[in-house]
Design a protein that fits this description.
2 copies of one chain form a homodimer. With 385 residues, chain A is of the alpha/beta class. Chain A is built from 14 helices and 11 strands. Chain A has helices at residues 23-38, 53-57, 62-70, 86-99, 119-127, 142-157, 165-175, 189-194, 222-225, 256-269, 286-295, 304-312, 326-329, 334-349; strands spanning 5-12, 45-49, 76-81, 105-112, 197-199, 202-203, 213-221, 232-241, 278-280, 363-370, 375-383. In chain A, helix 1 crosses helix 3 (62-70). At the A-B interface, helix 2, helix 3, strand 3, helix 4 and strand 8 of A face helix 2, helix 3, strand 3, helix 4 and strand 8 of B. Strand 3 of chain A pairs antiparallel with strand 3 (76-81) of chain B, so a sheet runs across the interface.
């Protein structure tokens, strides 16, 4: 149970190729934007979510790196790594720090720099989030693992590739009006169907683009939140894990960690699935969108793609997802993506989502995933009445 | 302020070359030992401290890796990275999780596998904890940075190399009776003085050995602690940071983060320096022992080596340090070292340190450092009356 933790402010950098910005400055700019949005000049501690800085930039130990760029003080600054779920995990650990009473106001920032390294190096580095002994040493990459999941899904549930197009199309459509998105050109059905195969049946438009990015949130306890009119409360927060490797799971199409964290977060919040107005899910691949909808409990097994088509996951649908483009089109700077989700959900709940606004949104769920569902971090955010 | 968090049990693996043990199993064994010691069959969450698993073993995402080795459940498992201070930081974040009310009983494990990779790869990987842009890109390694500090210390305070021998000798002496230590052969004055230079004036016996290792602690809230007769309370916990690079500090011989975290932890505990019965400090290099004694406030600037000689840092001295050999001789599996310190301090306070026992120890301080003092995590442990 997390008590009395609210989001006081948010900030984000565009997901893009930030060739001329160091990781330090990329993160610092997102942090300063969040602090300005929160109206605070000082934070008590900084928690950094990151997966790959060492491999991509030669720099680890990001806490002091970013902390000293932001202040002269000697603020606690620690890095949290939950692979591609780091951006969600860092907000959760920062929330726990506030809930513990240790701090009044803290900053959580997710940051990743991935552009500029050769593709193979990036693919290899990302694969470290899978099970090295059981998967990676046999040649598996995340595209390959997700292709296997997609193939299995099509076999088990009698689905076809076309069924997944809805996830790509909705995400890309939402990204067209998000100035911070990496891919703003939309995705026609023809483009989806004729795009080149990455790992059959997974095509180019089934996968998310890597990129540089940083997103930050300022969290505060109830004393600080009381003075902040645009605050959004964290009413549910949970993290669960599963085996790293798919082969160890009784059913690879069931994301147990997603199920457990989503239900735990809803229980904390005292809310039901029908109360959730929008879901920022971890659509690193279209298959993950379907599996997330099912494992979170929004729709029965095997019906994720049908749910998306029939109930609607677009902005005015029954359950809007990826409202600013998701990992799929806003982009997936891996250690930052989970923080982007929380920033975007906050903007939705504050009614500041502009052309991307989901009408009357008062409860949002975010789901940040590491590996093939090995880590899942779910947050439920609620607008103050 | 951390409320009501106690150490219910501890476990450790020998610091050694564990060629035949995977990181997963190395960590799991330390965890199981800690759980057995605590008398618990289940923990609510697992926090992992690690710096280099990706670079050394190709495996990141250690939370689910270790979590699924320990249980079938879907426990929260997240990794904390504060470079060489990860082993202290992970205990702190796990403590905050308990203090927040989110969990009753959690496990914090520090783990590192470093042996078996070529020396240059290890040195390069370790250097990622320094400032890449300002230090590493100019060729600095941690041995080089510590040699510069040692040289500066000798110049500023009119010290000679011999003055540092006390730190090596005490640590190696204490390690002779620690079956979990990496170097158990002692260190004569002659060996210290005639050992080969690593980076002048820093010789072989001024530096700590890398190694594989894992250490774990089970933490619980007061409800669980009340049932545990050998519990040790965490009465102070603080983390502070400084600039990553030495060149940005007004005085490189002053570890500001150590000063701030030590004083904050003492304040929380309501204790004074004179109440501290033993100090597990971060003696990765002998110069860090001197700087730690001074920056923590146990002795004035420039008097660390004299304090060690005159007051005594051996087992029966005024302030015993590195009581099981320290990083210097027990060994320095980087992401685990801070957790070993807490395990060892706990054994001291429980009176279970065997031949290494510090007489009548009731308060211990541990200091885990990342980089050249860029991160400092201080804990104060106290025996239950």
């Amino acid at each position: 149970m997390i008590r009395n933790v609210s989001i006081l402010g948010v900030g984000q950098m565009p997901v893009a190729n930030h060739e001329s910005l160091s990781l330090r400055n990329l993160a610092a700019r997102a942090c300063r934007a969040a602090m300005a949005d929160a109206g605070v000049a000082h934070v008590d501690a900084i928690f950094v979510g990151n997966m790959l800085s060492h491999e991509m930039t030669g720099q680890s130990h990001l806490g002091p790196l970013i902390g000293s760029a932001l202040s002269d003080g000697s603020t606690e600054c620690v890095t949290v790594n939950a692979a591609c779920g780091s951006g969600g995990a860092v907000v959760r650990l920062a929330s726990l720090a506030v809930a513990s009473g240790a701090y009044d106001v803290v900053l959580a920032v997710g940051v990743e720099k991935m552009v500029g390294r050769c593709r193979d190096a990036v693919i290899r580095a990302l694969a470290s989030a899978a099970d090295f002994e059981r998967e990676v040493s046999n040649g598996a990459t995340f595209a390959a693992l997700n292709a296997l999941l997609m193939q299995r899904y099509m076999y088990e549930y009698n689905a076809i590739r076309l069924d997944f197009a809805v996830f790509a199309q909705v995400a890309h459509q939402n990204a067209t009006s998000n100035p911070n998105a990496r891919l703003r050109g939309g995705c026609s059905l023809e483009a989806y169907l004729t795009s080149k195969m990455v790992a059959e049946p997974l095509g180019l438009y089934d996968a998310s683009p890597i990129a540089d990015g940083a997103a930050a949130v300022v969290l505060g306890n109830d004393r600080h939140a009381a003075r902040n009119e645009k605050r959004v409360d964290i009413v549910g927060s949970a993290c669960a894990t599963d085996t790293l490797s798919l082969q160890q799971r009784s059913n690879p199409l069931w994301l147990q960690a997603v199920e457990e964290s989503a239900h735990a977060a809803l229980d904390q919040a005292g809310l039901r699935h029908s109360d959730v107005d929008l879901l920022e899910l971890h659509d690193a691949f279209t298959i993950m969108s379907a599996l997330s909808l099912e494992s979170s409990g929004f729709t029965p097994r095997g019906t994720g793609t049908r749910f998306a088509r029939e109930q609607g996951v677009h902005r005015n649908g029954a359950l809007p997802i990826s409202t600013f483009g998701g990992l799929k089109a806003r982009g997936h700077p891996v250690g930052a993506s989970g923080t982007y989700q929380i920033v975007e959900a906050t903007l939705q709940l504050r009614g500041e989502a502009g052309p991307n606004q989901v009408p009357s949104a008062s409860v949002a769920m975010t789901e940040s995933i590491g590996g093939s569902g090995a880590t899942a971090v779910t947050h439920i955010l609620k607008r103050t009445a």
